Each structure stands twice: as structure tokens, then as C-alpha cells.
Amino acid sequence: MSDPEPSRIKHEDTEEQTDQMKEQKLEPNEEEEKHCDFKTQRIKAKKLHNCSQCEKSFSHKRNLKRHMRIHTGEKPYTCPQCGKSFSQLDTYKQHQKTHDEVRDHMCLDCGKSFTKVTSLKLHKRIHTGEKPHKCSYCDKSFTQAGTMKIHERVHTGEKPYH
């Protein structure tokens, strides 16, 4: 006749071992799972404002409104000194500095001057012929990464503003 007690003890040991294995695997407990679900819901809830023209979504209505200018072509910020218009206030403010700042970075090849040394470095590529940004799809190269990305849309068919 066997004693039922050892079986019960063995079962308890197995549960304890299972719990230890769960801890070792770092499985989330019930409280952690609830927190993760809540966090996921919060993130999804934050993106309430969707663009009707493309698939972008925004957590704040003001960001969607600013984004819509890409599609509408609206440029509400106009430079009083040169008449150039901008869709973003930050870009307009940055542009204003070009009228106010000293252009102390001069190209030795052509005499053109710049407010930023980075702008001068980019400009120098015109004279050197350096084109470090190569298209992933063909043999074309570009002086600036942004120009290359725009070109690559020819190959991908991407039309981000339609």
C-alpha cells in the first residue's frame, strides 16, 4: 500500500519548481501584464488625430493641423525682408537668421558666404564634385541625403504628398 502523502508533496514541489522556472524566464506576472496592456492602450489612445490624406496619425490636433500644410501647400509665415514663405514657424525663424547673422564662412572658390560652417561644407561639394550619397537602386549619386531620398521615390513609387 502506498502512502498518498508523498504524491501531494511531490506535486507541491513541482509547482514550486514551475514558479522558479517562470521567475528565471522573467515572465510577466498578472500585475505586469495589466500594466503593459494599459500602456499599449494609452499609446494607441494618444494617436487620435489621423490625416485624411495619408496614413500618419498625431497625438495632438495642432500637430495634425501643421502636418496638413504639406498637403494643402499653405505657407502662413512670410519673410518681410525677401518675401519667401514657410509652412513651419521654426523654419521661418531659422530663415530670419540668414538676414540677421554675419556670414563669416566664405567659400574660397567662388566667394559665396554662409552663416553656418555646415552649409559651407555642403556648398563646397559643388566645386569638388563629391557626391557621397548613392542611390540604393541605380548608379546615381547626390551631394545631399535628402535629395537622394527624393530621387529614390522614382524607384519605389512612393508619393508621400498625394
Automatic annotation (TrEMBL):
Pfam families named in the record: zf-C2H2, zf-H2C2_2
Entry GO terms, CC: nucleus
Q: Name one GO biological process term.
A: regulation of gene expression
Gene Ontology terms for molecular function: zinc ion binding
Q: What keywords is this UniProt entry annotated with?
A: Metal-binding, Nucleus, Repeat, Zinc, Zinc-finger
Name the source's superkingdom. Answer: Eukaryota
Q: What is its main location?
A: nucleus
Checking InterPro entries in the record gives: Zinc_finger, Znf_C2H2_sf, Znf_C2H2_type
Q: Where in the cell is it found?
A: Nucleus
Limits of the C2H2-type domain: 49-76, 77-104, 105-132, 133-160
Region annotation (Disordered) ranges: 1-37
Enumerate the PANTHER family for this protein. GASTRULA ZINC FINGER PROTEIN XLCGF49.1-LIKE-RELATED, PR DOMAIN ZINC FINGER PROTEIN
* Protein name according to UniProt: C2H2-type domain-containing protein
Protein source organism: Sinocyclocheilus anshuiensis
